[in-house]
Amino acid sequence: MAGRIEARLRELGIELPQAAAPVAAYVPYTISGKTLYISGQVTVWNGERKFIGKVGKEFTLEQGKEAARLCALNIIAQAREACGGDLDRVARVLRLGGFVNGGPDFHDHPQVINGASELMVEVFGDAGKHARAAVGVSSLPGNVAVEVDAVIELA
């Protein structure tokens, strides 16, 4: 029987990508006690990199938000993997860290990372409200536009 979060994803018409394998010397997530730490997730959909380039140059603010949302979908996919397939084990999204590959004149990093933040609230309701950082960087791995990591409390 599917849980309430899986039902919510279906209700919203949201499909999750496959949880991505790490591409360097790290693991996709770790669990310490009831805290789940998810490594930075980039703009990949089932192994295919998307949103290659800089927000404010190759991509608009709205496209940057879409890129951040894709990162958040990957975070949820990693959380599902970490929870043995049961997203109902997510008690609360505690924090997101967002990194925006932006041009030198781009300053709307928080609005870009809203794409990830808004998805967490859509999916998890009040438990999706979180603390956050949104920073601009001169580059990201593979020249992707956005990367987001997460800290989640488990039930």
From TrEMBL:
Q: Which domain of life is it from?
A: Bacteria
Endoribonuclease L-PSP/chorismate mutase-like domain span = 6-145
SUPFAM superfamilies per the UniProt record, alphabetical: YjgF-like
Against CDD domains, the record matches this protein to:
YjgF_YER057c_UK114_like_1
Question: What InterPro entries does this protein's entry cite?
Answer: Endoribo_LPSP/chorism_mut-like, RutC-like_sf
Q: Which PANTHER family match?
A: ENDORIBONUCLEASE L-PSP_CHORISMATE MUTASE-LIKE DOMAIN-CONTAINING PROTEIN, ENDORIBONUCLEASE-RELATED
Name by which UniProt lists this protein = Endoribonuclease L-PSP/chorismate mutase-like domain-containing protein
Q: Which organism is it from?
A: Azospirillum thermophilum
